[in-house]
Specification:
Blueprint lengths: L2 E5 L1 H10 L6 H10 L4 E4 L10 H11 L7 E6 L3 H10 L3 E4 L19 H13 L3 E6 L3 H10 L3 E5 L1 H8 L2 H20 L3 E5 L7 H4 L5 E6 L1 H10 L1 H14 L1
Parallel strand pairs: 1-2, 1-8, 2-3, 3-4, 4-5, 5-6, 6-7, 7-8
Helix pairs in contact: 2-3, 6-8, 7-8, 10-11
């Protein structure tokens, strides 16, 4: 079964909009874990627009008793301060994501040769600490091969292009899906695990969950948006049921 990692960034966004500690990030993680989510993702950006530096340790501490069944994934750009914290806490996975100045959310995956000299020592350091390394990449064979050459354990396929295609109709969505399937097959052939994320939801995930060799999907915005209306526990159950069906 494809694993679900719930991205809880939006809970922190709502909290930060008012200040204080409500809604609680730990309470959100607890609901997700108790609902059966096998993974929690956070993305601490340098500007702390949602997850703060303090939140990293708080989530780590909360998840510690569950680490036998719930994976902790920290994603972000390979800036030194964040990488120091990742190595200190040793989550199950670190997903390295490129960041563009002024972006609201991730706009692209790594492209071949982008920041190679910066990434190689970071990947080596994370690997030495026993942390699985995933690179957030475009669904392109060249990007997959580059990630493998750098020593990554997995790739996370950037799925916004697929989501946009699906929004134009099922035929367009299926054409885009074939591009991702080819990328996944190449990744698997190279020994890479396959994650995916960005703009996946209960509609477009029905097809995408059948992607060959897919290990994990990371979902935040759509999941939290629906949770406003039906509740967080309910929506986690919905996503888990969909993935089990697939």
């Amino acid at each position: 079964m494809v694993r679900l990692s719930v991205n809880v960034n939006k809970v922190a966004t709502l909290r930060n909009a008012r200040g204080g500690a409500v809604p609680s990030l730990v309470d959100a993680c607890r609901v997700c874990v108790e609902a059966g989510a096998p993974g929690i993702t956070i993305h601490p950006r340098e500007d702390e627009r949602h997850i703060t530096a303090a939140d990293i340790g708080v989530v780590h501490e909360f998840l510690a008793p569950y680490r036998d069944r719930v994976e902790f994934n920290i994603e972000g750009d390979p800036r030194p301060a964040l990488m120091d914290r990742v190595v200190e806490l040793c989550p199950d996975q670190c997903t390295l994501v490129p960041v563009r100045p002024g972006e609201i959310t991730s706009e692209a995956g790594w492209r071949p040769q982008q920041d190679r000299d910066r990434l190689v020592p970071v990947i080596e350091r994370l690997a030495a600490a026993g942390i699985r390394v995933s690179l957030f990449v475009e669904a392109e064979v060249a990007a997959i091969e580059w990630a493998a050459a750098l020593g990554a354990d997995r790739v996370e396929l950037y799925t916004e292009p697929y989501a946009r295609a699906w929004a134009q109709g099922e035929a367009e969505g299926r054409r885009s899906f074939e591009v991702y399937a080819a990328a996944a097959e190449r990744a698997h052939a190279l020994g890479l695990g396959i994650n995916a994320g960005h703009d996946l939801d209960l509609d477009n995930l029905r097809l995408f969950a059948s992607l060959p060799h897919l290990d994990e999907v990371s979902i935040g915005h759509a999941l939290m948006s629906r949770a406003l209306f039906v509740g967080l526990e309910t929506v986690v159950h919905e996503y888990l049921a969909l993935l089990q069906e697939s």
